[in-house]
Fold this protein.
Amino acid sequence: MPELLYEGKAKKIWATSDPDRVEMEFKDDATAFNGQKRGTILDKGVVNAKLTTVLFTVLERAGVPTHLVRQLDDRRLLVDRLDMLALEMVVRNVVAGSLAQRTGLQEGTRLTTPIVETYYKSDALGDPLLNDEHVAMLELASPERLADLKQRARTVNRVLSAFFAQLGILLVDFKLEFGMRRGEVVLGDEITPDTCRLWDAQTQVRLDKDRFRRDLGQVEEAYQEVLRRVMQNAAL
Ligand code: UDP
């Protein structure tokens, strides 16, 4: 039996025979509001494993290093083991979620230029927003490293915004996590409708975890619709 190294809200991390690599298994479990709301989204794990594989492959081709090695089966990816930074980088193109709450700006307002935010990855603290001085004070990243992470996040945004636009999907916002691999910064974790806001470009219909968070219904259908559009495009 492989050793379970870590179990999070949506994924399990398993050891492999190679100390430099781990298996990432995507579960159907869903949580929101810092774990206060719990549920299951049928086959979410299958959708998220496939989407992360496709999106990380697109990013690699665009010159963004990621931890992806290859997809192993419908729920599991082989990835490089990273020493994760305790930071979550959020990129926003459109006002939604906590940005609407914090600023009073209306959800759906287009930002004239994308913004990058930094959050402290801490379940105990509820992932608080940090400014650059907090990041330095907490020694989560040097100013140079933080500038580099923001630059990478902007590059990911350019690549993925263009990718989703081809599918008739507006990339509203998303969260990234980075880690270190032999001294090099590498994109880790996942990119899925759990970690992005994806709106139909024409109708603004939500195709992401907000359907679960806000009890909008048709949660499974939304995840399947994103996968369908992505795979249709990949086949072209
Ligand atoms: N996000 C995430 N994990 C988190 C917090 C946010 O993946 O712990 C994603 C979320 O899905 C959205 C973006 O980051 O795409 C911005 O989230 P926001 O700050 O608006 O927080 P929320 O409204 O989701 O609490």
About this structure: The helical segments are 44-61, 97-103, 132-137, 143-166, 210-213, 219-235. The radius of gyration is 17 Å. Residues 83-218 form a domain with the D-amino Acid Aminotransferase; Chain A, domain 1 fold (CATH 3.30.470.20).
